[in-house]
Specification:
Pfam families: Zn_ribbon_recom. Keywords: Coiled coil, DNA recombination, DNA-binding. By secondary structure, the protein is an alpha+beta fold. It has one domain. The protein has seven helices and six strands; from the N terminus they run αβββαβαααααββ. The protein has helices at residues 2-16, 59-62, 75-93, 102-133, 138-160, 173-177, 182-192; strands spanning 31-32, 40-46, 52-58, 73-74, 195-200, 206-211. Strands 1-5-6 form a three-stranded mixed sheet, with helices on one face. A hairpin with a 5-residue loop joins strand 2 (40-46) and strand 3 (52-58).
Length: 212
């Protein structure tokens, strides 16, 4: 009996540790829904040609909360557009001045993320208990836990994001122009402390705004 319990815990740990590592989301933790203000998270969907495509989706909508932003935004397209806009701004002005109101905005966003994380972890613990008690189908539990794990990661990304400073960016133009890898660009974006909102229009156009 002890072995069976240990094996079940190990299996559940494997379920909750699953992550989508095939795609990289440059704006993870800093992109928000323009309709409801909730964080948008990266996800992927399979297509008929056996290829997977990555998108940003409103975390409120996918979790059955009320939100009108129901269209998925292609992540690679948006990531590249945002990065190119940053590059262009550094070419024109040599730097970016942060919004002085962002510090308080970031604090509010982290407070919302902390409250949401608490609810998500409570839900996760409840499902694991139901699995142990045998009151939930394992396949249903696995799918729910995968979704919860993704939402938990998104909330934790917001909480771990650095606080924006009300001063001129310390990122140099050289750093921006020479950033070619995902990791380099990701570090720069986090240092800039930007916030991005995005949605997909009815005609399929990606509409976004960047707040520096």
């Amino acid at each position: 009996e002890t072995f069976q319990k240990a094996a079940e815990v190990r299996r559940q740990n494997k379920v909750t540790a699953k992550r989508n590592t095939k795609f990289e989301y440059l704006l993870s933790g800093i992109i928000k829904c323009p309709k409801c203000g909730y964080a948008m998270r990266g996800t992927r969907f399979p297509k008929r040609n056996n290829k997977d495509y990555a998108y940003y989706v409103c975390s409120a909508y996918v979790n059955a909360y009320e939100c009108d932003n129901r269209r998925c935004v292609p992540s690679q397209e948006l990531d590249e557009a945002v990065w190119q806009e940053i590059v262009n701004m550094f070419k024109k002005s040599g730097g970016i001045r942060r919004d002085r109101n962002k510090t308080s905005d970031a604090g509010k966003e982290k407070a919302r993320a902390e409250a949401r994380l608490k609810k998500l972890k409570a839900r996760q613990a409840a499902i694991l208990k139901w699995v142990t008690d045998g009151t939930i189908d394992l396949e249903v539990a696995e799918k729910e836990l995968q979704k919860l794990n993704s939402d938990i990661n998104a909330a934790q990304a917001i909480l771990s994001a650095p606080e924006p400073a009300a001063k001129e960016s310390d990122v140099s133009p050289t750093e921006v122009f020479e950033a070619n890898t995902f990791e380099e660009r990701r570090r720069i974006i986090l240092r800039l402390g930007i916030t991005v909102t995005a949605e997909r229009s009815e005609n399929g156009e990606t509409l976004y705004k960047i707040r520096f």
